[in-house]
From TrEMBL:
Gene designation: gpsA
Domain Glycerol-3-phosphate dehydrogenase NAD-dependent N-terminal, residue spans: 5-160
Organism: Actinocrinis puniceicyclus
Gene Ontology molecular functions: glycerol-3-phosphate dehydrogenase [NAD(P)+] activity; NAD binding
GO cellular component: cytosol
Protein name: Glycerol-3-phosphate dehydrogenase [NAD(P)+]
């Protein structure tokens, strides 16, 4: 039987444990807090992160990373992007030689501007054939309610991607394989930033034309960065690109969208942080995405706008005016 250890018993880690278990994979969640782990182990629920969801009894939980990793075919990582490196440094010595490392994380590391698969490779020394990514329009609450969704499992090694696909393919979760890890990771990280912009627009009451324009031009700047980094531009038309971007920009379940809406309706960043509380990756990753774009000479006006509002104290209305006043251009991506 295929065995998976999920590190990070939060919103998405817990929902993904359900996906794996329903696909017939032996699954153990590894969390930091005994109170969370005990409720999963004894009551099959994680109400702090997924209220109202009953987990299959086959999902186990522990606070012991070594025990969780014993015989694991897959180590699934679902901690916040900015804490992956320090966590992985502790876990690396415990990882069995054949285990495939799978990132569910949608962010870019501050300072290094690395994608999560790059952080994994650097910290563990594991090669690209054993590092995979799962990314797509997968809001945890909807997945946990077993509403049908598709996703992408990406790995440089197609055979490994197919093994992972099989491990998480269920009646309601349909993963497609892709070998473009760069494109899938960038799609996931940048959509959080565009999701903040869409939330801001909603908070300002701007309507659906504005939202559609943000989604479309947001995708154009994501693809522009992707191409500069060696991604396949078609990836951005797929589930890890357009699919995830649409879900995040449309859904009130998205934390990034909610955070943006609070900013757009006049709340401060501190107030939005206080209100949303859970991991909102775009808030930090907007700065690293912009830095990455600058290092590669890529223009990302929407990401710049979000950074100005979130980190530089500029008002959404002032930044909107600046965006609309940019010089007229051709629609071409490049
Ligand atoms: N929630 C969702 O719908 C989806 C989330 N994601 C991505 O999954 C990742 C995790 O997000 P969520 O599960 O939603 O976040 P969350 O906030 O619900 O859970 C994060 C987990 O990481 C642990 N954690 C927090 N800080 C930590 C630290 N410093 N060191 C070690 N562990 C730490 C927490 O205890 C918790 O178990 C993010 O990158 C997010 O973008 C991807 C797809 C869907
Ligand atoms: O990545 C997600 C859906 O695929 C979740 O988005 P949020 O992190 O904005 O909630």
């Amino acid at each position: 039987m295929t065995r998976a250890a999920i590190f990070g018993a939060g919103n998405w880690g817990t929902a993904f444990s359900l996906v794996l278990a329903d696909a017939g994979t032996e699954t153990v969640l590894c969390g930091r807090r005994a109170s969370v782990v005990d409720r999963i182990e004894q009551e099959h629920q994680n109400p702090e992160y997924l209220p109202g969801i009953l987990l299959p009894e086959s999902v186990h939980a522990t606070t012991d990373p070594g025990a969780a990793l014993e015989g694991a075919d897959f180590l699934v990582l679902t901690v916040p992007a900015q804490s992956l490196r320090e966590s992985l440094i502790r876990w690396a010595p415990l990882i069995p030689a054949q285990t495939v490392l799978v990132s569910l994380i949608k962010g870019i590391e501050l300072g290094t501007c690395m994608r999560m698969s790059q952080v994994i490779g650097e910290v563990t020394g594991v090669g690209p054939d054993r590092v995979a990514v799962v990314s797509g329009p997968n809001l945890a609450q909807e997945i946990a309610e077993r509403h049908p969704a598709a996703s992408v499992v990406a790995c440089a090694d197609q055979a490994v991607a197919e093994r992972l696909q099989k491990a998480c393919h269920s009646t309601y979760f349909r993963p497609y394989t892709n070998t473009d890890v760069i494109g899938c990771e960038l799609g996931g990280a940048v959509k959080n930033v565009i999701g903040l912009a869409a939330g801001i627009a909603d908070g300002m009451g701007l309507g659906d034309n504005t939202k559609a324009s943000l989604i479309t031009r947001g995708l154009a700047e994501t693809a522009r960065l992707g191409v500069a980094l060696g991604a396949d531009p078609y990836t951005f038309a797929g589930l890890a690109g357009l699919g995830d971007l649409v879900a995040t920009c449309a859904s009130p379940l998205s934390r990034n969208h909610r955070f943006g809406r609070l900013l757009g309706s006049g709340h401060t960043v501190a107030e939005a942080q206080q209100e949303v509380r859970q991991t909102t990756e775009g808030v930090k990753s907007c700065a690293s995405v912009l830095e990455l774009a600058r290092r590669h000479g890529v223009e990302m006006p929407l990401v710049e706008t979000v950074v100005a509002v979130v980190h530089e104290g500029r008002s959404p209305r002032e930044m909107l005016a600046a965006l609309m006043a940019r010089s007229a251009k051709s629609e071409s991506l490049y």
